[in-house]
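Q: Structure tokens for this one, please.
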Amino acid sequence: MAELLARLFVRNYKNTDDAAVRRAYGTMVSIIGIALNALLSGMKLAIGILTMSVSIQADAVNNLSDAGSSLISLICFRLSAKPADRDHPYGHARLEYVASMIVSFFILYVGVDLLWSSAKTLYTSIVTPEAATHVAFSWVAALILLASIVGKLFLAYLNHRIGKKLRSTVMRAAMTDSLSDVLSTTAVLVATVVAHFVALPFSLDGAMGIVVSVLILIAGWKILWETQNSILGEAPPEEIVRKIEALVMKSPVALGMHDLAVHQYGTNTVIASLHVEVDGAADTFDAHDAIDNIERELWDVLHVRATIHLDPIVIGDPVVDALRAEAELAVRSVDARITLHDFRAVCGTTHCNLIFDIAVPFECKQTDKELVAQIGEAITREHPAHFAVISVDRV
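A: Here is the predicted structure, written as tokens:
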């Protein structure tokens, strides 16, 4: 179904890296979301008022908020497709993150409001049963709720398929929200049927309204949590790191790589910087040419705009190799997860300075100062005339 809709409404639908194609996909999914949610909201609101069901009315308001979220997504996709300019040299694609956060705030507001009204209904039914509102049963209401479940499953499927294709945070948020709506509407449907056949000493309608609002709040919080990580900056996906490493290390000049930093400006704008170790005895111009080729291939194959710093190292020297092995042994003795790079040795008549960087995982709880002291002590304990000069990188 998603493929058929794409063929019908998106020109050049396979070229998802193109901003215009992404905008067309976003427009299509958003318009479908607005239309379907508005229709479901109108039907539920009408039947909820007629049957005096607070949970159905709550579900109607939830659908109305989803229509508003789809409208925000529509605006976002049109704005994020704007090309780069002087003030925004990397484009406007990060607007998707902002839109996702706005959607999450909208969902959380609706959830809190519905939680309050549902809790009030349940409390009234328990404390003053005579003042509680009686919910009239209707098979029409049950059929509308069932149709809503089917419609929301379709929206979840559509946002999942196309969101995965576009790697869109907004569509992932919409998918999560739609699945939450499926659960909440199912709860309302069960409450509607059960309340008709079973007499309970409290308002099942109000209780299910609370369930609906809690599910809405969970969905809103999940979207907010995922989006704030994107805005604050998060570790790059393992997949892209592996692909970059594999592409770099297949070059015959690359002896090692480190200090990889990846910055994502929306889905299709990835900026990376890294250091590549090369043989210090090799011709500088040849090494520079090879690094240029790696940068070009990173763009052509992975669409990563990379800047690579060339690090010349000494290889094949038995003295330097032995000193490096000594430093690596000391590093592993402190923490096997730590790696060493950029090694060089400066030796005089009385002592040797072993100069190197270490890459320390964030999970390592020791401070940088403690690590430097422990590695230095491990080196001088075995070789008193050898001293470590260490720089620490957290990775």
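A few notes: Strands lie at 256-264, 270-279, 304-313, 339-347, 352-360, 386-394. The chain has a mean pLDDT of 83.
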